[in-house]
Automatic annotation (TrEMBL):
<dbReference type="InterPro" id="IPR027417">
    <property type="entry name" value="P-loop_NTPase"/>
</dbReference>
<protein>
    <submittedName>
        <fullName>ATPase domain protein, prokaryote domain protein</fullName>
    </submittedName>
</protein>
<dbReference type="Pfam" id="PF14516">
    <property type="entry name" value="AAA_35"/>
</dbReference>
Amino acid sequence: MKSKRYFNTTGFCMPDMHYMIDPLRNQKIIFDLIEKKQYFTIHAPRQTGKTTLLHELAHRLNKEGNYISVVFSVESAGYRSITEEIANKKIINSLYSSSGQYLNKKNCPIPPEKYTKDLTLENYLIDWAISQPKPIVLLLDEIDSLYDDVLVSILRQLRNGFQIRPKRFPSTVALVGLRDVREYKLKVRPTEASLGSGSPFNIKAESILLGTFTKEEISELYSQHTKDTGQIFSKEVVDRIYELTGGQPWLVNAVANEIVEKILKSDYTKTITIDHAEQAKENLIKRRDTHLDSLIDKLKEERVKNIISAIINGDGVLFDNYDDSLMYCRDLGIISETRPVRIANEIYQEIIPRVLNRNLQDSIEEEGETKWYIKPDGKLDMDKLLKAFQKFYRRNSEHWLERFDYKEAGQGLLLMAFLQRVINGGGRIDREMAVGRGRTDLTIEFAGETFVLELKLKRYDDTKEEGLDQISRYLDTLGMTKGYLILFELKSSTVIPWETRIKWEEVSHQNKNITVV
């Protein structure tokens, strides 16, 4: 029998329809702030459970009976050409229409068309608060969709009301969006002097970043499916999905949904395997659902480009120059909070290079029907593949490096695009990219064999020796003795002729056999 519940990948979760875990399970801080009548912000990347949390919080507060709570969005006022007057009306209409979802009629604010005073959000909230016997908890979603004077106006009105809460203004206001409150000032014109503070919302007591799922929480989520259907996500499968998704809630649900409904076609008698998880990853990347498209759109932004280029190259990041960019990328869920900084999960780590070199991949055509890089026994001929890349690089690098939007990471992206045929041929590439490592490591699995490639930009005279030391240590961690060190010259080809730049050298280093390309 088909399960009544399923893994949700669109909109907020509802317990009777979707597998879900309590979004308020780790949020004692929110209830403490509400009890203390504080204003605060909640921020997290798209599709990480913000809206689900807000709905659950409002319904729980109303059910417990100590507060009146409403969630509403200000997105209807989120465009640049809107005036403050029209924005206020749209936001008030959104508040009023949403209140009916959470409250009975006597606790709702009056219809805006019946309001006789100057229709501003501040006045409207004052009169609503005065009319109610209980304190109001207002959960204001999509705050960072507002621009310029409208954003300033709304934040100023909320700040004005803070002084007269809870009898004459909402006791608690939570501003919810993609980014922390510090980002709001970046959207306000620098000439705006009326705010009088470094932050337009300096009354906030706390800024809460919603986290990703832990491995235990993924297991708890998936066990609900097992309880409904008997179909098991084994520990090994859960561990692999955690590696693929980094616990990102939408990805956790999307991978499971892809396996259960698309790959296994809701046949609950079939066993879920790690291969199914890998197939789900590839399907999601190739299909590029809305979630992944919104991530990709952010790659065009300059401060995202700075960080992603540094990660691909393994370069260090100067925190005095890039601190805001790092925090911005973290808030968007693109990078991890770990040190060193990495791309947040394996799926993002796979799709970002593919997108950045997509045009090149499309232009690389196979020569004939036979896969020339496959040996007669079906194994991968890595030497032949890399020698072909040397030839390709000599012929095409100047043209393609100039065309790349991510020029700083162009050499590595060229190689990754060239190696994409390995994945298309049924292989797998794991990318180890992190800020400050000084290189990118690629582990290629094909037909039961593993190949290790280390990519380095030749910035200094001793780059080769440094690279040999690094790949030797990396091979030690994998228990291997054979690897490839790929060095990219950064000097102009007019200085060093191609005959000198293109090299192939077999080196013995620290008991390892390393091919230097």
